[in-house]
Amino acid sequence: MKALAKTAGFVFRSIGMILTIAVFAGTCLVPSKSRAKEDLTADFIDYTYKSILNKEVDGERFGFWYWNLKDGNTTAVGMIDMLTQSYEFYQKEYTHEQTIDVLSQMMTGKPADESVRQKYLYYLDSGISMRRYLADTAETPEFKEICAKYQITPGTITDLESRDKNPEMTNFVKVLFEEMYGRTPVKEEYNLWCSYFAAGKALAPTLMDILKSSDFAERGLSDEATIDALSSCMLGRSCDPSEKENYLGLLDSGMSMTYVAFGIASDPDFISNCSGIGIVPGTVTLTEARDMNPELTFFLTRLYTRFTGIRPSADDLNSYVSSTLEDSGKTKDAIVEMLSDPENMALFATDDEYLSAVFEVCYGQSPAQEKIEAYKIGLKNGVSRQRVLESILKDPAFDAKMSEYGIDTHVEKTVPEKIVALTFDDGPYTDVTMRILDALEPYGAHATFFVVGNRVNNYKDCVVRAVNMGCQIGDHTWNHTTLTRLSADGVSTQINDCADTVYNLTGIRPAVMRPVGGSYNSTVSANAGMPMIIWSIDTNDWKYRDSNHVINEVLNNVRDGDIVLMHDIYETTATAVETIVPALIDAGFTLVTIDELAEYKNVQMENGKAYFSIRG
Predict the structure, then answer these.
(1) Which of 17, 115, 259, 411 has most Cβ atoms within 10 angstroms of its Cβ?
(2) Is-catalytic flag, 446?
(3) Torsion-angle region of residue 602: left (phi > 0), alpha (psi -120 to 50) or beta?
(4) Res 16 pLDDT > 50
(5) Would residue 157 be called left, alpha or beta, if left means φ above 0 and alpha means ψ between -120 and 50 degrees?
(6) What is the mean pLDDT of the chain?
(7) DSSP string, 402-414
(8) Helix %, strand %, coil % for the chain, to 5?
(9) Is the Cβ–Cβ distance between 66 and 42 less than 8 Å?
(10) pLDDT of 346 strictly over 90
(11) What percent of the chain is modeled with pLDDT above 90?
């Protein structure tokens, strides 16, 4: 063991002596500054130190640079790179412009051209380091000439940071941070994000992730400022005023900011801008229900905002869009329910405001003047807003408009197994008509009242209530005249005078008429101007004035598609109806108006044609 220890000690002492001799010999081999005056490597070291640090190189550093340059361990640009990163250079506190001038003078033998100076000052302001200028200048012919003069290898810088490799991308990262985060990135962030995009990460989905981040939300940017930020990042320019107005309009109509970004990404400048930066553009993926169907979203936003006074939240709007598309058949019911709510109705102080809002929401436009005037007449005289709304929603134009939103609101009615139309002539008359309406209302049953024109204004409440219940008002001439005794003009006058009176009260012009006594001829048919409704069951209530007789006539004879004749001017008829209505309901009949009967039976009634029943 002792022998082994002695041997090991001898070896270590020998190695130590060899290293000492080698260091001493190496030091001796470095020429002193006086001996190296004719040495070009030494001259280059002196030239570089004086140019960059404005000082003489000391002996220790001289030796370090001398042998590293001689042995090829470093190059001219490698030496310059290390000096510009030294503490001594840092202490100079040069501005970027001064640094460029110093390096340009040293590496090219002249001050930097103004265009070059401005280019690299722009780079430096964009987050690129001075090493990019150093790397680029090292490739110039002037630098290579200087290196050749001193017989020094020029070299290149191959280990640039990510931020220095693509100036356009680095500047974009700065813009992205300033626009989306409100600050300038630090060195590590520049490198990280430049590497991220250089690896092929797409811009569009990245921006969408930022939009949804808490960091972005905490900034509390306005919609307008967010659009500006997206435009700057995606298009490389400010948003055109008209474009911005359009995007703000989309947001106001219920679309998300993602949808706005989707629109910006469709601009050809987006692809062009990304190409110039060297970034993959990518696509904006729409995931919210409200963004999938813009027209429907616009409609629902208008609907809820105008008729509740509250703008729907994003979650609510997504839910509304989804549920509407799942069951579009309930759209009308939902609208009626919403617009019939007393609190919502209170938002509209006048009928004009209400009608304008309904047409704006349901049709996306102002109503035709003749339509709005008709509805205003009815509203003025007591026709309910709900009834007017239901009438508006029956207009085929509403279904056509909804189809633009992807909503099929045309719902085929389920045809009842048995249908009957109860009709009443010669009224109105409050004591009887109101009792008949009382009998119908609990069942949601409808009837048709063929009114005599000169009685209408004396019993307005009866007519208005009938309309509000969904009953139909038919024409029974102006003063109960037998039309077969009149000329063509006389027939027209009798019918039109009655129709005008009904219109002036309800805003609804009668669509069907009944000639007095059911009497008609070719002159009546030619001038009736609407279908002539006769009857299949005549109760003769006017003749017998017996409630039981009326009840038996109806219940013993009624069939599907019948039209029953009664008169709403006899108390006995009202008494009979109070039994007939529930009895028919119990027997499985649905009580409808003439128009509803024709609709259910799929019969297109013709003007001037007589209908005794409608069985389809």
Answers:
(1) 259
(2) no
(3) left
(4) no
(5) beta
(6) 91
(7) HHHTT----PPPP
(8) 65, 5, 30
(9) yes
(10) no
(11) 77
**What pTM was computed for the model?**
0.71
Give me 320's structure tokens: 């509304």
- Catalytic residue, from 425, 541, 546, 560: name it: 425
Q: Averaged over 532-551, what is the pLDDT?
A: 98
Closest CA to 181 of 233, 224, 223: 233
The DSSP H or E segment spanning 303 is: helix 294-308
Who contacts 36 (Cβ-Cβ below 8 Å, separation ≥6)?
Answer: 42, 66
In the chain, how long is the greatest CA-to-CA distance?
A: 154
Q: What mean pLDDT do residues 209-224 have?
A: 95
> Within 13 Å of residue 136, how many CA atoms lie on the same side as its CB?
18
Question: Taking 70 as the threshold, does the pLDDT of residue 573 lie above it?
Answer: yes
Residue given tokens 């009834």 in the structure block: 387
Q: How confident is the model at residue 531 (pLDDT cuts 50, 70, 90)?
A: very high
Q: pLDDT for 298-326, tens place per residue?
A: 988 988 888 888 999 999 999 988 888 88
Distance CA 195, CA 600 (A): 70
Question: Is the preceding peptide bond at 428 cis, omega within 30 degrees of 0?
Answer: yes
In one-letter notation, the amino acid at residue 343 is E
**How far apart, in Å, are the Cα atoms of 42 and each of 107, 146, 178, 366?**
17, 14, 48, 90
From the number of C-beta atoms within 10 Å of its C-beta (0-12, 13-18, 19+), residue 44 rates as: buried
Instruction: Locate the DSSP E strands across 222-332.
Output: none
58 classed as catalytic = no
